[in-house]
Design a protein that fits this description.
The structure holds two protein chains of two kinds. Chain A is mostly beta strands. Chain A is built from no helices and eleven strands. Chain A is globular and about 35 Å long. The termini of chain A are far apart. The model of chain A has no long low-confidence stretch (mean pLDDT 91). Chain B is globular. Classes of the chains: A mainly beta, B mainly beta. Chains A and B meet through β5 and β10 of A and β6 and β10 of B.
């Protein structure tokens, strides 16, 4: 039981390049989330998926897209990376019941640098 | 607007000192409250949570938190810290509606001097 896994762990991009961050969970959770963590700002929600087949914007969705590929996988895409997207990205999942209110389980994070 | 405030950005303590980290929330209606910890280089882990019942909640590693509804607070405490408690601590809140998302505070960095 691996919990929440993310790939890659580290990535360096040039401005304008694109990439996809992958996330998978093996806990049969319905809800999945993408956050970014910046110093002094805590975690900010980028996008979330309350259940398979649905996605919604969070607090800071601009410049990102997501795909809920199946119940296990939730990917985050940067179409044209900008230096402002330099951050640590965390994927999380929660609850077998579909509610968004329950505790979340986090992946190890992806440290992204955009030059 | 819904928000979670952690006013202490960086706390420095010596080993064996007592700890209290402040957390205040602004959330309409009934809330669920959480404390997460992030050790250096690691991902966030749940320390403890409050959903209902006894307002004094005990978590892992000797941590506890008290929900005081009248003060909109959920402060984290530990009577005697250890060097291994060095980490960043995040308070978070969510509503009871199934569509309510968890909102995180900005975090408090705790440094313990050996």
């Amino acid at each position: 039981n691996a919990g929440v896994t993310q790939t890659p762990k580290f990535q360096v991009l040039k401005t304008g390049q694109s990439m996809t961050l992958q996330c998978a969970q093996d806990m049969n959770h319905n809800s999945m989330y993408w956050y970014r963590q910046d110093p002094g700002m805590g975690l900010r929600l980028i996008y979330y998926s309350a259940s398979e087949g649905t996605t919604d914007k969070g607090e800071v969705p601009n410049g990102y897209n997501v795909s809920r590929l199946n119940k296990r996988e939730f990917s985050l895409r940067l179409e044209s990376a900008a230096p402002s997207q330099t951050s640590v990205y965390f994927c999380a999942s929660s609850s077998p019941g579909g509610s968004l209110t329950y505790e979340q389980y986090f992946g190890p994070g992806t440290r992204l640098t955009v030059t | 607007a819904q928000s979670v405030s952690q006013h202490n950005h960086h706390v420095i303590l010596s080993e064996a000192a007592s700890l209290e980290l402040g957390c205040n929330y602004s959330y309409g209606g009934t809330v669920n409250l959480f404390w997460y910890v992030q050790y250096p280089g690691q991902h966030l882990q749940l320390l403890l949570k409050y959903f209902s019942g006894d307002p004094l909640v005990k978590g892992i590693k000797g941590f506890e938190a008290e929900f005081i509804k009248s003060k909109f607070s959920f402060n984290l405490r530990k009577p005697s810290v250890q060097w291994s408690d060095t980490a960043e601590y995040f308070c978070a809140a969510s509503g009871y509606s199934s569509a309510s998302k968890i909102i995180f505070g900005s975090g408090t960095r705790l440094s313990i001097r050996p």
